[in-house]
Amino acid sequence: MSEYFVGRADQDGRGSQDPMEPAIPGLPPQDEANQDAVAAAVPSGPQHVRFGVPFNGVVPIWHDGTEITWHRPTDGTDLAQVLGLGHVETEDGPSPVPEGWSERVETGTLLPPAADDAGSSGTGSRAATSETDPPSAVGPVLMLKAVTPSGRRAINDPGTGAPVPLSAALSLQEAMGSTAGDFDITGFSVHVARLMLRAARDRAILLFTLRAPNDPEAHHLLSAPSEVDDDGVLHFHLGTLLEMEGGAWEEAQYSEGMALLDLDVPYVSLLADTRTHGAHADPAQQSLDPERLIAMAQPVVDAILQPGFPFALGCSFVIPD
Fold first, then answer.
1. Long-range contacts for 131-134 (Cβ within 8 Å, ≥24 apart)?
2. Closest Cα partner for 192 from 55, 301, 32?
3. Are 302 and 249 contacting, i.e. CB atoms less than 8 angstroms apart?
4. 123-170 per-position pLDDT tens digit
5. Is residue 211 within 8 Å of residue 218, measured between CB atoms?
6. What pTM value is reported for the model?
7. Alpha helix locations (H) across the chain?
8. Which of 26, 90, 85 shows the shortest CA–CA distance to 54?
């Protein structure tokens, strides 16, 4: 994982960028390997893939092997509303788990660009804008299959799956933005909160991992055994080997090198103000308050972003068999 944490010296020896001080916080230096990954991101045939945690409207594609590429859906699909929430088919994950449990990771298939898309580059409305504009790059197609035919509309296809057209592979600067302020921390935190709600509903262990460049193994950052009791109180038991301080982590306990923090959150405390729905509104009909979701997720977000690499984060669920 050293390339994320300390960078690599410029291969050409020019020293154009200090690897210890990348232009974007947490951004590893650009090198030939990264450019090769971008060039290889359009598959020549079906590819089995997994996913990182979406951010900034971007989905990290975890290829078999060591590559990660970053793409945006081009049809308006918000994959943060789909991935990680129990809608997409899964397979066994690589993490060791206790007997009677299994790790589930979501999976999809990456396909070459559709023939009509590949043939349309530089033609039609795109060509009409300006003869000097370069043709837009054509990206692959992500096929997602729903867990059941009643899954979310974006993947509601019990057959081969629903296609999600993607952009060509993005550079890390294009995915993250030119400054640290371009990272959509609000949307990211709400997504993490929704992952926590799913884990509590399923009485699952939520795992967050970090995948380093040229390393096929995802390294654990944080685990969160989760549940909801009969009174509607959500319980999250956070554990991490990271050195945490500040915020809720000031109340953490320590055991065998791990920081341990328990969160107890009444579900009703996450609902929008009763003035919006009426004092006697049915909780099932009330919407969740984004600010309260963000507050609930803050200790988790603090931990998983502590290394500084949101573009390489993954998550999975360990569920009872």
1. none
2. 301
3. yes
4. 333 333 334 444 456 799 999 988 875 545 445 555 667 899 999 999
5. yes
6. 0.79
7. 2-6, 32-39, 115-120, 124-129, 172-176, 185-202, 274-277, 290-304
8. 85
